[in-house]
Amino acid sequence: MAENNFSLAATLQSMLEAKKYTSIRDVLVTMNPADVASVLEDMEEAKLPLLFRLLPKEEAAETFVEMEPELQELLIKGFSDVELKEVLDELYVDDAVDIVEEMPANVVKRILKAADPTMRREINEILRYPENSAGSMMTTEYVSLRPDMTVEQAILRIRRTGVDKETIYTCYVTKDRKILGIVTVKDLLLAPDDEMLISDLMTTNVISVNTSTDQEEVAQMLSKYNYLALPVVDNEERMVGIVTFDDAMDVMEDEATEDIEIMGGMTPSDKSYLRSTPLDLFRHRIPWLLLLMVSATFTGMIISHFENALAAQVVLTAFIPMLMDTGGNSGSQASVTVIRALSLGELEFSDLTSAIWKEVRTAVMCGCVLAVACFGKIMLVDHLLMHNPSVTPVVALVVCLALAITVLAAKVIGCLLPMLAKKIGFDPAVMASPFITTMVDAISLLVYFAIATSLLPM
Amino acid sequence: MAENNFSLAATLQSMLEAKKYTSIRDVLVTMNPADVASVLEDMEEAKLPLLFRLLPKEEAAETFVEMEPELQELLIKGFSDVELKEVLDELYVDDAVDIVEEMPANVVKRILKAADPTMRREINEILRYPENSAGSMMTTEYVSLRPDMTVEQAILRIRRTGVDKETIYTCYVTKDRKILGIVTVKDLLLAPDDEMLISDLMTTNVISVNTSTDQEEVAQMLSKYNYLALPVVDNEERMVGIVTFDDAMDVMEDEATEDIEIMGGMTPSDKSYLRSTPLDLFRHRIPWLLLLMVSATFTGMIISHFENALAAQVVLTAFIPMLMDTGGNSGSQASVTVIRALSLGELEFSDLTSAIWKEVRTAVMCGCVLAVACFGKIMLVDHLLMHNPSVTPVVALVVCLALAITVLAAKVIGCLLPMLAKKIGFDPAVMASPFITTMVDAISLLVYFAIATSLLPM
């Protein structure tokens, strides 16, 4: 798809140079706003305001929402106050808030000044909620109905007020801002009788989230219940907004990306890979690299401590990488599985003992198979094929024993640390491969040398 | 939430023992089907059929869909033919297909026999499409309208046929099964005039997917365009079904989990962590552990090859873990970022050179900072503080040079391999940490010994 956009960008570029503005407009209006946004992003930045002004008002606003923050900022700076107001008037409140959150202070000031008073108040209200909470991702534009309305009156109300609402399909029956029930447009259309009362039609078993509920949990609830929208209530149980499925999908994607980045030993980034400069990448990667490098000092110290043992049995060195890597891989398998289960809500801290017991049994199976395979490999390849005289069966035994114990320790640590992190309020994803590897390295070396010094002549 | 379900399960269990069936029913009907399913899963298996029969027909079917395959199978085996037919009649075709896909052959036979002829035909049709394709995740139940209908006629048609459709909110205007346009219920309700023709109201810029489109791409398109549903067409561009947002959310979650599992060096699993037995975990983990252990033979061979150099300068051994770990971490940072960008469709193979050039510049910055920090740390800690006489400035220089080159190689490999894998049709996620680590280990050791043998007295 990126390739298509690139060539389309080239076509538009030449049409732009030939000043064929009407034709450009004709091309753009047939496209979906998300696609227009990605085409515009590939165009020369200086031409952006011109191209953007070719779009009809409503499509312009929808395209604006889909663009990268840097380009939004560039466009806003080029807008007159009237143009800015026109775009803002077409936005849903939650999209306006997303934009405001990414802009520098002076741009935010201009936006809030240009927005109409209702929207300004609503933007400010949503901005008060903590980042990544249901309150910060909700929109205040939903359809509310009264319980004493008839089906016909409800449909009339939707027809009158629906145009500005992010979704009209789920309507909330409220009294004094408390939610009494939910009515869908499907319920309304399929109702047997137009005179039926909303209070008789509504579902009263309403699932809602609090403004402070974490956005990841909100997304998972929407996905679990297959809802189009979830109502958001404040601490007094008064309804303040809704979160819709499309925002939940974005949250799911962002949270998975964030987990993957943290598990890969990086601080998470908002920018896409292609938009990140090498300096951005450097800044997100160097802290963990430095930290892990320094913590590898311990493994170095362990090796230095056993320098004499190693000098007496140089052959032991050759198996250090295999031991460390297998330990690291075993630990990261356990940690990655546990981290994902925690973040999908499948696993809780209360499952700690059963999870560890599961990992112990898995580790015993993995450890035995690996130890036997390793013993066979060493005796076959190193001893028989390569005729390495220092690789004796006792050396092979030392390596395999150390391997089995390392796998066990790695799996337990890989399971334990993410769950402990979650318990004390840290992000479990931090406890993934890089971190586990460093710990497992140290343990595997200690075990290795302890077994070696007791079984081999030193 | 799991905790709440557990205690609710206990309450129901004691109500069950006291034979308070009406009260149990009263509790269950207030709950959402997804929650009923998770409560039932925590109950004694023998009591399941009894509890299930307490549910009203429609809720029973919705609950059934949300249950784990093992319990669905257990229930089906206990159903009479009439009961099975009752549940099936309430299911949407795509849910029925999901269930059929998980069941053993004899159960599938019973299901197909009990289904009414239309559903049987549709199930068989969907089963023909390859796994993970749009065809296999679609439902054939959608609302189609004719272009010459008026708004009023369209609403009437929805009222008459809508009850069995998975979504009524997006309707497809078709002629000879080709899609002419899309009309939403919002468009219909907000239409200025009931006599307006559908052909004048519809959006003609329709985005559709082919039956063979990969489910991950379908989910990303739904998310990108914020659609409730996407139409699925066959190779003759005839509409055959729709994919809805709730299935797309499940796919997004499953695909992210699958990527994370593969990146963690496991074969992907369908079961949740708590439902996986140690034997399941073992089977998904041991192949990669064995493969990576055997491939670590190469690093062992490199070390054996330079045994004399190591014997002459035993101090070099102490820095091997740090070198290997930092290389591995640098490589997995790059690979994880690239794999995620590839799977979100942000990055294409055509971006290869710009991606590698970006990684090279990032690697130079990371490498320089790490080398300087490492030199400082070695001179300060090992040389000055620990008074290790064999740690000379030249040794520190060897380590730091090797470190910088390793980081560069690791980042380039970490970026290159996933993109090559994608190009030749492999899953890029396979090229994550475990695989990259093994390659980078070998490279870092070769570089290390090459620099050491040329700079140090051997």
Topology, pairings included?
Two copies of one chain form a homodimer.
Chain A: H1 2-17, H2 21-29, H3 33-41, H4 48-54, H5 57-66, H6 69-78, H7 81-90, H8 93-102, H9 105-114, H10 117-127, H11 134-137, E1 144-145, H12 151-161, E2 170-175, E3 178-184, H13 185-190, H14 198-201, E4 209-210, H15 215-225, E5 229-233, E6 239-244, H16 245-263, H17 278-295, H18 297-305, H19 307-312, H20 320-343, H21 352-385, H22 393-423, H23 433-455
Parallel strand pairs in A: 1-2, 4-5
Antiparallel strand pairs in A: 2-3, 5-6
Helix pairs in contact in A: 1-3, 3-5, 5-7, 8-10, 15-16, 18-23, 20-22, 20-23, 21-22, 22-23
Description:
2 copies of one chain form a homodimer. Chain A has 3 domains: about 1-135, MgtE N-terminal fold; about 145-245, CBS-domain, CATH 3.10.580.10; about 295-455, SLC41 divalent cation transporters, integral membrane domain (Tetracycline Repressor, domain 2), CATH 1.10.357.20. Chain A contains 23 helices and 6 strands. The first copy, chain A, has helices at about 1-15, 20-30, 35-40, 50-55, 55-65, 70-80, 80-90, 95-100, 105-115, 115-125, 135, 150-160, 185-190, 200, 215-225, 245-265, 280-295, 295-305, 305-310, 320-345, 350-385, 395-425, 435-455, and strands spanning about 145, 170-175, 180-185, 210, 230-235, 240-245. In chain A, the strands form 2 sheets. In chain A, strands 1-2-3 form a 3-stranded mixed beta sheet. In chain A, α3 crosses α5 (about 55-65), α20 packs antiparallel against α23 (about 435-455) and α21 (about 350-385) packs antiparallel against α22 (about 395-425). Chain A starts with a helix and ends with a helix. Chains A and B meet through α12, α13, α15, α16 and α17 of A and α12, α13, α15, α16 and α17 of B.
